[in-house]
Write a structure and sequence with these properties.
This protein is an alpha+beta fold and 103 residues long. It contains 3 helices and 4 strands, in the order βαβββαα.
Length: 103
């Protein structure tokens, strides 16, 4: 079966963000992810990739998943292994804290 909305990756982590479109822009700018597939109007989910790694961004759903900002604690983690991390790491840390604080 060939479905363009389903990547060939073996694992697809789902990350919950209050604003999926803004999260997509941030992940593109800070980490270099690219958008693969977007769905919903307004946008309710975006699949992104970097190399062979794919992730799914989704908005919070009452009773099913909430954003870390609403819960007051982290609910997700992302590990990125990169050869040249000095500038990428510093951009990511600053961006991560801004995202968590909603600034």
């Amino acid at each position: 079966m060939n479905n363009r909305s389903v990547p060939a990756a073996i694992m697809l982590p789902h990350l919950v963000y209050r604003n999926v479109a803004e999260a997509c822009e941030w992940l593109t700018r800070v980490f270099g992810f690219s958008e693969y597939y977007r769905h919903g109007q307004p946008v309710s989910g975006i699949q992104m990739y970097m190399g062979d790694a794919y992730i799914m961004l989704t908005g919070p759903r009452e009773g099913r998943s909430e954003s870390p900002a609403k819960l007051g604690y982290g609910t997700q983690m992302l590990t990125i292994i990169e050869d040249s991390t000095a500038s990428q790491t510093s951009r990511a840390i600053v961006g991560c804290f801004r995202s968590m604080l909603g600034t």
